[in-house]
């Protein structure tokens, strides 16, 4: 969790890098703290440094831009592939052998090993689209477009989950729980009504 000292230091660095455009006012630390409190100190510092050192525009970062930098750093650390890398992984993935087939390795018959996907998100999308029958190399362009759309959508969900502040995540989860309870109650009432009708 980012402490106030780290947040203050990060804001001073931003102010020094953008002296004409970023002024740290009394509420600035408090507001930033409420939106980056879930980030580790080192991640916050690295995200600020990355933005300043790689930014192509002349404006200081907003909180969402710093959170986006943090997501990109996490993605690099975890090794989430780009859409093109993921597609290459799907193309290279060996198809499973038909049932009953054996593998001969160094003169010995061994059971075929199940392919281990380097990243679970790629496996999830590939299987959702029908792997091992997918992709059909006769329709590679179409299958690649479908894969990219599905993969990008899933990646955006991961990014949204990563960039969303805990306060928003908590709200969404609470609302989902309320909705599920409401739907469960309505289903219960409907079932009870149907049971009454059957007995009459």
What's this, in brief?
The chain has 200 residues and is an all-alpha fold. The chain has helices spanning 4-17, 26-36, 41-54, 63-78, 83-92, 120-128, 140-163, 166-199, and strands at residues 103-105, 108-110. The longest helix is centred in the C-terminal third of the chain and has 34 residues, at 166-199.
Note down, in words, how this protein is organized.
This protein is an all-alpha fold and 200 residues long. It has three domains: 4-78, Helicase, Ruva Protein, domain 3 (Orthogonal Bundle); 83-164, no CATH class; 168-200. Helices cover 66% and strands 3% of the residues. The protein has a two-stranded antiparallel sheet with strand order 1-2. Helix 1 packs across helix 2, helix 5 (83-92) crosses helix 7 and helix 6 packs across helix 7. The longest helix is centred in the last third of the chain and has 34 residues, at 166-199. The radius of gyration is 25 Å and the shape is flat. It starts with a helix and ends with a helix. The mean pLDDT is 85.
Pick out its properties:
200 residues; mainly alpha; Helicase, Ruva Protein, domain 3; 66% helix; flat
